[in-house]
Each structure stands twice: as C-alpha cells, then as structure tokens.
Amino acid sequence: AVAQAAAGAIAILGVKPTRPETGYGYIRTDGIAPDLRVVRFVEKPDADTAQRYIDAGGYSWNAGMFVLRASAWMAALERFRPDIAAACRAAFAARGTDAKFVRPGRDEFAGVPAESVDYAVMEQCPGVLDIRMQELDAGWNDLGAWDAVWQVLPKDGDGNATVGDTLVADSHNTLVHATSRLVSVVGLDDAVVVETPDAVLVASREKSQDVKTIVARLGQSQRGEQTLHRKVHRPWGWYDSIDHGPRHQVKRIMVKPGASLSLQMHHHRAEHWIVVSGTAEVTNGDKVIMLSENQSTYIPLGEKHRLRNPGKVPLEIIEVQSGSYLGEDDIVRYEDTYGRR
After folding, report:
1. How many whole angstroms from its chain centre is CA 246?
2. What is the mean pLDDT of residues 17-22?
C-alpha cells in the first residue's frame, strides 16, 4: 500500500470476509492480488445481498483505512468537492496558534460542508482516479456495533459475554456491558445490555446497529446526551456532573498540574467550590486566594473568576452550582489559555 501511494495511487485496505456481514460496506475489486483495482464501493447490504457477495467472490469488507499522499488527497478533493477544499483552505488561512495547538478559524471551519470522506471523494474515484486495494490480514474487526463487540469477547457456556460488574441467569448469546454499577439480567436471549453513567441501552443483538435511530431522536429532542457525556474532558482536565436538579448542579472537577480554566463569568448561576485534594489558586473578582484540602469559597453570580492548579499534583474540587439556568453555554470568557471564546 505504501509503495502504491508513493507512486501516486490511492490505496485502501480491504478485509477478506468470513461471513455475510450486513454491518460493513464492501469493496468490489478486479485483478489478482496484490494488483487489485477498485471497481466500486458498495453500501451496507441486506443479508441476502451479503451472502451473494460471499458466494461470488471479488468482494472485501471496507476497513475505511486509506494510504495516500497528502497531495493526492488534495487533488482528489479539488476534483470532486472543490467547495469543501476551498472552505478548508479558508479555515486554515484564518488559523490561530497557542502552545502546540493549531486552531482553524472557528467561523470558517463551521462553514465547511459536512460530508464523509467516502461519499465526498472515495466513492467517486473508481474509473476516474487510480485507486487500488491491498488485502489486510490482521484480525481486523470494525466493532461498529455492539453485536460485533459480542462476537470478539470471550463467552461462557451459554454464549454470554460480560464486561464489568454483572450477574447473568437463564440467558443465552447475550452481551452485558456494565460501566459504573451492578447490572443483572434474567431470561434474555440474543440481547445487548449496555450501562454507562449517561444512559442504558437494551436492544436485540441483530438490531444493535439501529442505535443510530435513538441517537437521531436524541438530537431531535435536543437532549444533552447526544453531545456531552456525564464526564467531559477538557484541555485543562475534566469534570464529572454527579448530580443535578431544576436549580442546582454538582460537579467533580480535576485540574491538571500547572493548568487553569479560563477567566470567566456566568450570568445566571453562582458557584461554591470545595477543595478535595491538591492546592487551588482562585481568582474571585479583584482577589486571588489560595485554598488547600477541605477549604472552600463562594463565587457570586456575575463575578469574574478563574481556577488554577499551581501545584505538582492534580487538583480536585467539588463545585455546587445554583441558579435559574445551568447550561454550559452560560459562560463569558475574558482570557483563555486554549483560545476558546
């Protein structure tokens, strides 16, 4: 693949199918390995069509991995989607830098058309550009659905696969994945049960790929689960939303050594900070104070404030928010190490 890419071709890695899989896209090729030319890309088929692909031969699973020169990619993008290429160039031209980060222009990047690599470029290449396939023999599995996870995990005598703190009784060929608490199932066959701190999914194993319909409904309902996990990682550390109600929210916050949050203000909420471990440097209006373990402070609504970890060990605090609106978009940043607005 590297040699083909070095010669200017686009190389894609394909996997020899071992079953009529309906969860993967397929690549139709012509020729004899290793000189396989891509004839066309095929979307995820139904079960009967997938079986026909297996019987006919000449089809491989699309691993979605490409090897090509940057110049070859830009030439293909300019040819098939010049609008995307132009929008990307504009976003890069408006870039800013801080520390090791290069940040495209926010507004310009938001204007880049949303399209996958496959639809925008790769599916247009066969018969137009030189695109080849190399067979990948590496025990590959896409793990694109929970059924695929069940397939690769070790199983008990009844075909059940478990992860985390679980109890399973009178069940067969079922996946139980527990993240933050005990999950018990009784009398389930060919099912998927996935527990996270955010949500719980229960589905038929054969329908596990249809979780995307649930994700779409979350978006239509404008629920936060679609965009934010309970534990959210930031450049300075992370926060975990451990409790919330109509006018309050409780977060556990970790700040990396030497890192700081932005100098900020909230219009609709006040905050109480309690240091659990480490040392906190707190900017609260015109005052800067140091807090250690078991000490606390209060940030009034509308007050400029910042949290910084001046120490050499992680800083952990508990933050209690109270107010009429507690959304993450209620924030005015005055200074930020990471270029956020």
Report:
1. 29
2. 88
